[in-house]
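Section 3.1 - Work completed
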Amino acid sequence: MDEEKLTKTHLESLSTHDLLEIADDYGVDIPAGLNRRFIIGELLEMAEDNARYAVKTAALADSAMPIPEESLPESYNETRITVLLRDPGWIYIYWDFHTSKFNTLFDNPNFDSFFLRVNTFSREDSSQLLDFFDVEVGATDRKWYVRLSDKKNYYRVDLFCRIKQEKDRILAASSVHGVRLENTLGTPENTRKRKSPILELSGISELRKTHLRNHRQSFG
């Protein structure tokens, strides 16, 4: 479905089943039994984020260096993982494998899956691990978006392979990154847009926080 159709009027005209199908198409994880008003709200928020990102991408493209005549290779045949900060709330992760290493792992009869581990480290002591969560990725995936719930500390993303009956193997680790504090301090509590009393009473803010805690890996 075209993203331009994701307007409030259009979404309200659809059945709940259709809304859930759209959410699934866009990778938006909707908890079972969620009120359709909240589903529409999640989809509209996702469409707004995508539109905002498209504008940023277009602006960057306009100022980018000329593309060389020869196309860049799809793979550098190297096992590595890289993390880029998209904005204070999201990170863009991309990775690659050395061909022989990938084939050895994937052809193993006990191969289970690849996954990303997003680690959070203390800003005061970057060696102190505070938390982590895993994101399952497919064997053909090479990039992923992850939403950060903690924007005050440092993070590192590791690429893992899961082999049955073996300890999970770490294949590559990104550099340690930190969200610049000025990016997170620009909207202090006393300057944020005031929520309407109806939304405050509805509990939607707490629902979104719980949703993010339970499904944060699904925002990729």
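Second construct:
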Amino acid sequence: MPLTEAELWKVYANKIKDDYLQQSDFGSQNKIFIPPINSQAVLASGPIKQSQTNFGVFRASDPLLKVDNPSFTPSNDGYAQKCLNYLRAVQLDTDASAGLVQNRDAAYQRLTAASERFQAVAEKARAAWQDEFDYPGTPLYQWTMQNYPMYMVADHEQKAASAEFDQVMYNIHGPNYMTLVKMKQNLQLALEQQPSPFTMVVNAALPDAAENTVADEYRPKYDIDAGYAKQVEAWIDQAVDGDDQHEKASIVISASETSDYDWHSVGFDESKIDASGGFWPFFRVEYAGSHMNRYDDVKVDESSSSLSVKILADGISSFAVTPSSTWNPGNIKQTYPNLYKSASQQLWDPMVQVSKIVVGYNVRIEISLDSDTYNSITSKVDTALSRDASASATLFGCRLNLGGSYNDSESNFTNWSDVKKDGDSNTFVISASNNTIPVLLAVVGTVLS
């Protein structure tokens, strides 16, 4: 098989499985998904606030994954929202009269339209909240009530349509329908922008950010292994103490071993692999052009047979993440397999839910290349910087800041000036970008179908 970026990530996923997920069973139900290699994981311990930890737990746990795409490409709907949309589309067996069935179908269409309007308004309200110059410190749910009346109108319309639909369904199915109603009510409470047993406060601020630069929000509550914070604290303590006695974790990937592994062993059907939504080029530089952003890529091919990547970390471990029992409806596709014919195709598709995350600490990367690939990368960086002093790049999924002030709350980044470059050995060494931020190295997705 020709050497591609996807082939390298196939080796990476298998190495993660063999070394850090030995207790997991991979096949049609469990799969390994690969994020950009310097994605921020869950902040924890020390000065980290619970809301910052919660942000990481939610961001890693709520996205739904694509069943045939091994890259970590979160869909628009999160798990909680998708469950609610699904339960609203459930069709129960009935011998009701034609008139009641007609009323049911009409009520469902009104509910679907009201829900779509509400979700669109909610997105606009959140964008307006973020753009408001004085929003920091004001939680989203408070801000929308005070400053975005259309949100409250859309919320009222959605709840009214939901109540109407539930009443029609109760008239058809009687008390048996109440179990489904309770599931939907719990999910609605989890998606409310206000404190409750169904939600958790989240804050995307990084450890070194000034207070109140990011406001609190409320998101569906998720849980992570109780030992997570202690493990992160232990890693940090080892780094602070200069403890070199503990064996460092490593993942070594070589272009020469791509034929030794397959996708099936990490949960995917080789014939259905779809990497169109991920597996970013091996190297990509981005810079501002005259009218639009421009990209310049370096891809791997057969000439890159000497390529190798060594990922080192002070520690790597896996941790379970689970939706809160206060609102999680379980495997609703098994419980309620039938939907209305008019339901969105996305609701019929399998849902892949994050069930574990693999986290590394103090992650650094050594990349060895052939001379042509090495020189091509350095040349493209020089060209980009000559045109845009704030250009950025990615190298094997690592975000690199070439000269600007790149920063966000979802990725670590390393300055290009801090990358060690050796033209004699054609090697790049990317040092750990931030010793306070654990790195998300992989996630395990469980298929609900």
